[in-house]
Design brief:
Elements: H1 19-26, H2 32-45, H3 49-57, H4 61-68, H5 73-86, H6 90-98, H7 102-107, H8 114-128, H9 131-137, H10 141-154, H11 160-176, H12 179-183, H13 186-193, H14 199-212, H15 216-224, H16 228-234, H17 240-253, H18 257-266, H19 268-276, H20 282-302, H21 306-312, H22 316-323, H23 328-341
Helix pairs in contact: 1-2, 2-5, 5-8, 8-11, 9-11, 10-11, 10-13, 11-14, 13-14, 14-17, 16-17, 17-20, 19-20, 20-23, 22-23
Length: 345
């Protein structure tokens, strides 16, 4: 008779409904390796909806607060991994928001272990995707911005995922309420991050900056911080998402008079027209739709200035071509642009 080979990386799992309580009992032992094995088994189990429900409703999440503060980095990191899996379901997100886990989670942003920091950011970024989660994390925005400043000063490749996740959390929070990030010098910090070598970080930084440029104060700060010249460079970026988010920031900023005239001085209009004139097949049209709409809206605002209207009057054939697109959203944006460009005072 052959005997089953037990996985040394996982704790033995009891049968049926006893499995989850037994593993949480094992988390109370002192041996860090034993706790990691129990956490690994729990990570396997919570993929099953009934096990996840039992974990969340059985009062077991309270034990995780102690584990997030465990002396062993592997225990802290694996606990974050378990929380991220719990976060994949609405009942898990609700339970986390109702718990006292946010404070120890946020403390892990300064953890000496890179794995702990990254896994903690994964949980916070996932939580921020939901409005209730983003609202709960607004109080952490100042701390997130300070952490971003620290990462910007170092710019280590091994910390890029951590920085990308942090920026994603900031974006989600700032879309709900940009004021905390604006009050934390967010525009200046994000402006520096736009020059990062990683396209993923440039993409997330531009997305966060687009959220901050919605209120009037954010628009003015974009102008005052001299960021528009960096944005002009990013319109030529090879990454489509970077281009799209950058066009979104410009679209927001040119609504105010200083933004209009700074962009006119920098020669933004020819670059936006160049993006609009690119030849596209059907698949590219779908992928570039948001970029095209942002460009059209930015040009519409720029044409409100007499100088912009003069430049764009020579581009009417291109705008007419966009007005004949199949996509209704693109057609609508192009019609509005043409109406403003051809307006006679």
């Amino acid at each position: 008779m052959t005997t089953a080979v037990m996985d040394p990386n996982r704790a033995p799992v009891a049968f049926g409904r006893r499995a989850v309580p037994q593993l949480f009992e094992q988390l109370q032992v002192q041996d860090p390796a034993h706790k990691v094995r129990a956490l690994t088994s729990l990570c396997d189990l919570v993929h099953e909806p009934e096990r996840l429900y039992q974990t969340v409703t059985g009062g077991f999440l309270k034990q995780l607060q102690v584990l997030l503060q465990d002396e062993d980095a592997a225990v802290r990191s694996k606990t974050c991994e378990l929380l991220q899996l719990v976060m994949n379901h609405s009942i898990g997100r609700s339970a986390l928001l109702a718990s006292s886990l946010l404070t120890p989670l946020s403390d892990l942003m300064d953890d000496p272990s890179a794995s702990c920091r990254t896994n903690a950011h994964r949980v916070l970024s996932s939580l921020a995707q939901q409005p209730a989660g983003a609202e709960a994390l607004l109080s952490l925005v100042h701390k997130l911005m300070l952490k971003l400043c620290q990462l910007e000063k170092v710019r280590q490749e091994k910390q890029e995922e951590e920085q990308e996740l942090l920026l994603s959390t900031l974006t989600s929070c700032s879309r709900l309420d940009p004021l905390p990030a604006l009050a934390s010098d967010g525009v200046r910090v994000l402006g520096q991050t736009l020059t990062h070598t990683s396209p993923s970080i440039r993409r997330e930084a531009a997305a966060a900056l687009m959220a901050l440029s919605v209120p009037a104060d954010g628009k003015q700060q974009v102008c005052d911080q001299g960021i528009l010249s960096n944005l002009l460079v990013l319109l030529h970026d090879r990454n489509l998402d970077v281009q799209t988010n950058t066009a979104g920031v410009i679209m927001n900023t040119v609504i105010i008079r200083p933004g209009k005239y700074l962009c006119l001085e920098l020669g933004v209009i020819p670059v936006l027209l160049e993006l609009l004139s690119e030849e596209e097949d059907e698949e590219q049209k779908k992928r570039r739709k948001t970029l095209v709409i942002y460009c059209l809206r930015a040009l519409t605002a720029l044409s409100e200035a007499p100088e912009g209207r003069v430049i764009l009057s020579t581009a009417l054939p291109l705008l007419e071509r966009r007005r004949n697109e199949q996509d209704e959203d693109v057609r609508r944006a192009a019609r509005t642009a043409i109406k403003v460009v051809t307006w006679k005072p």
